[in-house]
């Protein structure tokens, strides 16, 4: 007694395996997946457990080999591949290139043993069929007859057999491979053509093994191996004495690739399956056959009376193998991933149940007399002949069918070619029209026309003579050749024109490029000028704006008020010193002589005006006339002229050409308070002299004093004369400053001293000094007036320039005006005058 062998194999999967293997145990890896509550055991023990790394050779050598080789001793063997779809059943059975399946390894092993065993002669037959929806399809039939289903019948001995199933005799490993290959091709064909889903069918490869042992057989076999087939008479004659009886063994090996063991419910879950009754039926049949298979195995092993082999085609066919005397191996295939846990558990439980089954393995050995043994061999021989004949006929039929098919196809193709040629010929003119000139020349007139037409520049390939359309083609070619020549000549013409145009175009482009560059350059220039003009415009606007401001008026008002103030002071003094001071300077008597009328500058000459001209043009002469002469005898009562200080003409590089070097190198002096103090000091020293000379000299004092004054103060006549000359001679020469003129700064006028003591003289001197100081003040005021007049003049000139509205003139003029203003500004800074009429916080004169 021995149990059904059960082995489990885990299919490799990219996902981690939830199953672990240790020796003969397979168990759930708790770390990967927790066992479901109440679902029973998750650890199983089998005869062999193969992990993901196992190869088909491992499975074969450990489980399958002994079972297969037992067939040579008359022991039936059945190998079931059980498991869900995609779990590796077919892989285990048939394998891949680098991992040969157990079936091929079995064949190899078997034939190796058979060939090595010289005491026996083996008769091998095989069949390959599929049970699909309880219907049997012979996979070794020609594909044309593949759809024929076979029936399972029962013979007189109550044995089931598949009626009409091909049992192909095989005598070598190659022959059995060919059979297997044919069966596989038909299986795939059935899958596509007949819509047999291989995973929902049971595929059974069956190998019948018969062995005969005796001398006769050995001899027969030897002859057979040498391809010498002795006749029966020969055999009987030659070996009559050797036929003493033989041992005959018979066994069947079944390799069963079962359908996927999924539950029927799963099929129903599939929407597609729900819609298709066929699929539902498949599932039902699969589960039914698997259930009955399990039941049969179990009942037979338990020996509990009636075993319902008839319930399914699978059990009927496998009856001889499952009668409890066969070796049975179940290889459980499971997927390792957690996703398939339920199916894997189901498979493992099936294996556990199957493993409990005990079988009594018996060898099918019959001792036959020689005649019987000979009959076996003869039947095998005949069968082989029959098979060959059958195959030959089938092949012949197949070839004939193929031939007919090919002939039909050939005819159809020829018809298509003829039609296509006719269409192509029609298309030639149209094609030539459609092909553009450019295309033709581009491709060197390599036009493909109808059929085999090929036109090149060099030669025309003629179509084959047997071409029924030859004439048509030739005429088409002639036309095309003429067209080609015309096209070439036209092309040359157009090409020349194009070259000329191209040259012209290049020249024009060069010209345009140059012009463009010039425009660019001019643009840059223009932009520069424009920005400069803008700048100048802004500057002019700014200056004009400034000049137009009220500040000027305020300034004038300021000076007027100053003058008024001085006038009032003067009058006050007049009142208080009527006796002593009869000479009152009337500021209003200052005669401002505007020389603008005499110095009209032509608009056209503005650009030629230099700064000196402006400055000299701006100079004015001031005549100061002393009015209300009280005492004509007093020498000090006289007209005097105020001349410009020298520095007026030396600052800002303003030099008069007539000025000699000595005068230009004079030390700049001004009318500042310091000068005034110096002068005052000189008078004080005069006073000292007077004091020391006492009264004895006082009478001469005035004389000496007058004498001194004579050089510096002119008599009224002289003054008048001078005045006249200055009035008549205006301009540059007239106002040319000299050293002498600077020295002519008005000295204090000595007032007539009443006779008396020294104290009285002193007080007189003081009075004189005071008057002199006032005179200096007047001089200062006068300069202010001059400044003002200068400024007015400048403004006038500027306005004139503005009228010209020529930028160059304006610019030139403005520069001069600004220089003039600067000049005055410097004067203001240098002059020591106690006022800064042009200074403002914002830098009034800033450029
Ligand atoms: N041990 C293995 N090693 C490598 N690949 C395998 C292995 N087992 C199975 N495969 C691969 O898994 C896929 C499914 O295997 P297979 O067709 O043998 O499953 P099956 O159980 O026969 O499925 P079905 O029931 O649909 O016929 C195949 O591509 C196969 O090559």
Automatic annotation (TrEMBL):
<dbReference type="InterPro" id="IPR004217">
    <property type="entry name" value="Tim10-like"/>
</dbReference>
<dbReference type="Pfam" id="PF00225">
    <property type="entry name" value="Kinesin"/>
</dbReference>
<feature type="domain" description="Kinesin motor">
    <location>
        <begin position="3"/>
        <end position="357"/>
    </location>
</feature>
<keyword id="KW-0505">Motor protein</keyword>
<protein>
    <recommendedName>
        <fullName>Kinesin-like protein</fullName>
    </recommendedName>
</protein>
<feature type="region of interest" description="Disordered">
    <location>
        <begin position="693"/>
        <end position="756"/>
    </location>
</feature>
<dbReference type="GO" id="GO:0005874">
    <property type="term" value="C:microtubule"/>
</dbReference>
<feature type="binding site">
    <location>
        <begin position="83"/>
        <end position="90"/>
    </location>
    <ligand>
        <name>ATP</name>
    </ligand>
</feature>
<comment type="similarity">
    <text>Belongs to the TRAFAC class myosin-kinesin ATPase superfamily. Kinesin family.</text>
</comment>
<dbReference type="InterPro" id="IPR001752">
    <property type="entry name" value="Kinesin_motor_dom"/>
</dbReference>
<feature type="coiled-coil region">
    <location>
        <begin position="396"/>
        <end position="423"/>
    </location>
</feature>
<dbReference type="InterPro" id="IPR027640">
    <property type="entry name" value="Kinesin-like_fam"/>
</dbReference>
<dbReference type="GO" id="GO:0008017">
    <property type="term" value="F:microtubule binding"/>
</dbReference>
<dbReference type="Pfam" id="PF02953">
    <property type="entry name" value="zf-Tim10_DDP"/>
</dbReference>
<dbReference type="GO" id="GO:0003777">
    <property type="term" value="F:microtubule motor activity"/>
</dbReference>
<keyword id="KW-0547">Nucleotide-binding</keyword>
<keyword id="KW-0493">Microtubule</keyword>
<dbReference type="GO" id="GO:0007018">
    <property type="term" value="P:microtubule-based movement"/>
</dbReference>
<keyword id="KW-0067">ATP-binding</keyword>
<dbReference type="InterPro" id="IPR019821">
    <property type="entry name" value="Kinesin_motor_CS"/>
</dbReference>
<feature type="compositionally biased region" description="Polar residues">
    <location>
        <begin position="722"/>
        <end position="744"/>
    </location>
</feature>
<keyword id="KW-0175">Coiled coil</keyword>
<dbReference type="GO" id="GO:0005524">
    <property type="term" value="F:ATP binding"/>
</dbReference>
């Amino acid at each position: 007694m021995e149990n059904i062998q059960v082995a489990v194999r885990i299919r490799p999967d990219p996902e981690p395996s939830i199953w672990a293997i240790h020796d003969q145990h397979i168990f759930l890896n708790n770390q990967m997946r927790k066992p479901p509550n109440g679902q029973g055991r998750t650890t199983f023990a089998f005869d062999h457990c193969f992990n993901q790394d196992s190869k088909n050779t491992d499975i074969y050598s450990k489980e399958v080999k002994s079972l297969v080789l037992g067939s040579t001793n008359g022991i039936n063997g059945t190998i079931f591949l059980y498991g869900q779809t995609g779990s590796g059943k077919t892989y285990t059975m048939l394998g891949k290139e680098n991992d040969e399946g157990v079936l091929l390894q079995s064949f190899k092993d078997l034939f190796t043993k058979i060939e090595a065993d010289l005491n026996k002669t083996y008769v091998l037959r095989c069949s390959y069929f599929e049970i699909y929806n309880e219907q049997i399809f012979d996979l070794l039939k020609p594909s044309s007859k593949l759809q024929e289903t076979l029936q399972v019948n029962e013979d007189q001995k109550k044995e089931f057999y598949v009626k009409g199933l091909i049992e192909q005799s095989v005598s070598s490993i190659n022959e059995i491979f060919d059979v297997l290959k044919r069966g596989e091709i038909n299986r795939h064909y059935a899958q596509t053509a007949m819509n047999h889903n291989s995973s929902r069918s049971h595929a059974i490869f069956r190998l019948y093994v018969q062995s005969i042992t005796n001398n006769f057989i050995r001899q027969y076999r030897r002859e057979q191996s040498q391809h010498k087939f002795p006749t029966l008479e020969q055999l009987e004659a030659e070996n009559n004495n050797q036929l003493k009886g033989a041992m005959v063994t018979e066994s069947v090996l079944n390799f069963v690739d079962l359908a996927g063991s999924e539950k029927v419910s799963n099929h129903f879950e599939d929407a597609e399956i729900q819609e298709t009754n066929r699929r539902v039926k498949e599932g039902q049949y699969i589960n039914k056959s698997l259930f009955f298979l399990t039941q049969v195995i179990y009942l037979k092993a338990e020996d509990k009376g009636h075993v319902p082999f008839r319930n399914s085609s699978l059990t009927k066919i496998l009856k001889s193998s499952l009668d409890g005397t066969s070796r049975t191996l179940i290889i459980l295939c499971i997927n390792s991933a957690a996703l398939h846990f339920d199916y894997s558990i189901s498979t493992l439980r099936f294996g556990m149940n199957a493993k409990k089954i005990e079988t009594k393995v018996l060898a099918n050995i019959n001792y036959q007399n020689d005649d019987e043994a000979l009959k076996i061999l003869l039947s095998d021989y005949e069968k082989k002949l029959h098979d060959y004949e059958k195959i030959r006929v089938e092949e012949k039929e197949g070839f004939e069918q193929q031939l007919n098919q090919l002939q039909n196809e050939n005819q159809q193709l020829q018809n298509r070619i003829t039609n296509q040629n006719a269409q192509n010929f029609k298309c030639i003119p149209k094609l030539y029209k459609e092909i553009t000139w450019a295309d033709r020349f581009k491709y060197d007139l390599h036009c493909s026309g109808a059929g085999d037409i090929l036109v090149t520049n060099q030669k025309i390939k003629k179509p084959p003579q047997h071409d029924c359309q030859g004439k048509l083609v030739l005429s088409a070619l002639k036309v095309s050749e003429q067209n080609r020549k015309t096209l070439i000549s036209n092309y040359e013409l157009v090409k020349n024109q194009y070259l000329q145009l191209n040259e012209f175009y290049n020249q024009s482009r060069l010209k345009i490029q140059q012009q463009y560059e010039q425009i660019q350059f001019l643009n840059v220039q223009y932009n520069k000028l424009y920005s400069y003009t803008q700048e100048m415009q802004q500057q002019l606007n700014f200056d004009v704006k400034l000049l137009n401001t009220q500040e000027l008026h305020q300034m004038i008002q300021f000076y007027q008020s100053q003058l008024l103030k001085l006038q009032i002071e003067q009058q006050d003094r007049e009142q208080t010193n009527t006796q002593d001071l009869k000479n009152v300077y009337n500021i209003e008597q200052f005669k401002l002589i505007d020389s603008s009328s005499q110095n009209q500058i032509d608009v056209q000459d503005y650009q030629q005006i230099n700064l000196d001209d402006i400055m000299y043009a701006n100079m004015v002469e001031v005549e100061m006339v002393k009015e209300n002469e009280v005492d004509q005898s007093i020498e000090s009562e006289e007209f005097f002229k105020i001349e410009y200080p020298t520095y007026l003409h030396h600052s800002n590089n303003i030099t008069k050409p007539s000025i000699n070097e000595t005068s230009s190198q004079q030390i700049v002096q001004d009318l500042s308070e310091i000068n005034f103090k110096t002068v005052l000091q000189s008078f004080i020293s005069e006073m000292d002299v007077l004091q020391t000379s006492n009264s004895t000299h006082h009478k001469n004092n005035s004389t000496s004093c007058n004498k001194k004054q004579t050089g510096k103060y002119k008599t009224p006549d002289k003054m008048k004369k001078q005045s006249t000359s200055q009035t008549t001679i205006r301009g540059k020469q007239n106002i040319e400053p000299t050293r002498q003129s600077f020295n002519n700064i008005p000295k204090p006028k000595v007032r007539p001293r009443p006779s008396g003591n020294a104290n009285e003289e002193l007080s007189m001197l003081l009075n004189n000094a005071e008057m002199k100081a006032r005179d200096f003040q007047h001089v200062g005021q006068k300069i202010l007036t001059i400044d003002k007049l200068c400024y007015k003049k400048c403004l006038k000139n500027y306005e004139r320039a503005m009228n010209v509205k020529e930028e160059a003139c304006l610019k030139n003029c403005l520069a001069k005006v600004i220089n003039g203003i600067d000049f005055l500004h410097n004067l203001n800074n240098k002059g020591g005058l106690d006022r800064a009429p042009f200074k403002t916080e914002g830098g009034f004169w800033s450029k």
